[in-house]
Amino acid sequence: MDFKAQILQGIPRALPKKKVYDTQVNHAPKKKAILTKEEKKLALRNALRYFPEGWHAELATEFLAELETYGRIYMYRFRPDYEMYARPVQEYPFQSLHAACIQLMIQNNLDPSIAQHPHELITYGGNGSVFQNWAQYLITMQYLAGMTDGQTLNIYSGHPQGLFPSSPAAPRVVVTNGMMIPNYSSADDLEKYNALGVTQYGQMTAGSYMYIGPQGIVHGTTITLMNAFRRKLGMSESPAGRVFLTAGLGGMSGAQPKAGNITGCITVCAEINPEAARKRHQQGWVDELIFNLDALLQRVKAAKEIKETVSLAYIGNVVDVWEGFDAAGVLVEIGSDQTSLHNPWSGGYYPAGLTYAEANQMMAEAPALFKEKVEASLIRHAAAVNRHVNKGTYFFDYGNAFLLECSRAGADVMADDGVDFKYTSYVEDILGPMCFDYGFGPFRWVCTSGDPEDLVTTDVIAMEVLQEIRTEAPVEIQQQLQDNITWIREAGANKLVVGSQARILYADAEGRAKIAAAFNTAVQEGRLKAPIVLGRDHHDVSGTDSPFRETSNIYDGSRFTADMAIQNVIGDSFRGATWVSVHNGGGVGWGEVINGGFGMVLDGTATAAEKLKSMLFFDVNNGIARRSWARNKEARFAIEREMGRTPDLNITLPNLVDDNLLDALV
């Protein structure tokens, strides 16, 4: 069968042969055994309902073995034989061109060059899943191939619930991931209900089909790192010869070395998984691999001496690096961490003192002991960071729950008030006041032609639009615009593409709408060979309610509410999004955040031109309005400016209270 026929088939008509477990692929760590005997039966019933009864006897034995060996039922037997990558959109079977674009995005998320654990359908973050199992993938792709523009596909935590009649104006797909009753969002609830096959952790862009490889986070990390050095050194000082020390070379964290090179500093990134480090080195995202701490010390000292721009991956534990640099007197100007601490007990953080293999074995066979090791390591980790900060290091939490999990472990990370952390998150210090409050956030696009020439064309279009906007922009947003003009001008030279022909930059509502309109016109005129898919990371102005990251600079007490993200998804859905998604969980963990996202297809039509204006305007300004109500002065400036340009926009503004009045009263 050819590729299109396999997609249209869905679940194979004949039971495929069992596949040999591929040891050459980076696999997810084994999950801890959490189900009772009766719950194991339920997990098997849930898995077998995807298949005809005549296959049950054979598959039940196989699925039980998967459950007991790996902690999940992935249905490896049903993994397709065709190569997994984002094909040009016309190569997919479809009745709806928009549905074909979604097929492309799904396959891009599962491309082995992008996905962290591709055979477990995990894109990044250790547990950020596109689907729970391969049956869900097969059925979803079949539905998308057959659906019309008068249908909508509902996805329940990876499960394709079915096609429902709707309208061409409705989203083609609505995705929910992990939407639990609030009292059932503990870490063990995720383990249990995921093992049962009824929920999944969609992360931010994994379960919403909007991941574009490390490039997405490279841009955000570059903007963050450039501004971190500006905070540390001042606007006129160069990062050359200065050290940025961090950890993680996974699907998201792997962007850090590339961002460091673009910023122009010395990046030291520790990674405990040798395969993850080698993958980033092979892709050109990190310059050198170093396996010995003494060799790392000498290499960093040499780089400092000549003010070299270089990225170094240390294969080992980051705690050893922090402690080793402290003992050797190596000054670290900027420090952070991007290990997946939203997932601390299942492979997101590897404790000091254990090898990668030892840790993987312990987390599966002795989870209580593993948790103790992680907590002890976090205490050491934080203590070493504190010593560096006392010497002048600027340390920021990168929203990966590092400070949160350190505090839960009893590490010394709390401020004197016992409520706040002693270190701010990067959103509090940098991205919140400098970007999100003004409406700037991650605007991304994918060229569905798969043609690199189309990507070059979009780069030129985007740069020209930003340059035009900058000529009349207020001083408050000049730096943001210039940073992104510089970024898009140099994007091709930085070789950021992995997987689909995609790009990202930070833009506000005006920039996003004008760039999107120019793309749509280019598709209509044939200057772009196929439609463009628009999207964003949920890590944005409006899409995410995350009290320790995206909304950490909301100080009116509402950062623990999730109205904004839910309103965002609902509002985007009836304003023109091609698909929408909402997740429990994201970069800071299950139960800690609600994420909303979208995808939009620009097909060159007048309908797309109208939809992009309405949806992109709301998608950004919904968040600015909320931030303005929280009394963020930058957001108030932005929403008042927008109301001046848009007569139909009428936002409730806060009246400010004199603190002296309250101090005298309370």
From TrEMBL:
Q: Which residues form the Urocanase Rossmann-like domain?
A: 213-430
Q: Where is the Urocanase C-terminal domain?
A: 436-640
Q: Does the keyword Cytoplasm apply?
A: yes
PROSITE patterns in alphabetical order: UROCANASE
- What is the enzyme's main class? lyase
Cofactor note text: Binds 1 NAD(+) per subunit.
Pathway(s) it belongs to: Amino-acid degradation; L-histidine degradation into L-glutamate; N-formimidoyl-L-glutamate from L-histidine: step 2/3
Single GO MF descriptor: urocanate hydratase activity
Q: Domain Urocanase N-terminal spans what residues?
A: 84-210
Q: Keywords for this entry?
A: Cytoplasm, Histidine metabolism, Lyase, NAD
Q: Name one Pfam family in it.
A: Urocanase_N
Identify which cofactors the protein needs according to its UniProt entry: NAD(+)
Cited SUPFAM superfamilies: Urocanase (SSF111326)
One cellular component (GO) term of this entry: cytoplasm
InterPro entries, sorted: Urocanase (IPR055351), Urocanase-like (IPR023637), Urocanase_C (IPR035401), Urocanase_central_sf (IPR038364), Urocanase_CS (IPR023636), Urocanase_N (IPR035400), Urocanase_Rossmann-like (IPR035085), Urocanase_sf (IPR036190)
Q: What PANTHER family does its record include?
A: UROCANATE HYDRATASE (PTHR12216)
The protein's job, in short, is: Catalyzes the conversion of urocanate to 4-imidazolone-5-propionate.
- Name the chain's protein: Urocanate hydratase
Q: Which organism is it from?
A: Pedobacter heparinus (strain ATCC 13125 / DSM 2366 / CIP 104194 / JCM 7457 / NBRC 12017 / NCIMB 9290 / NRRL B-14731 / HIM 762-3)
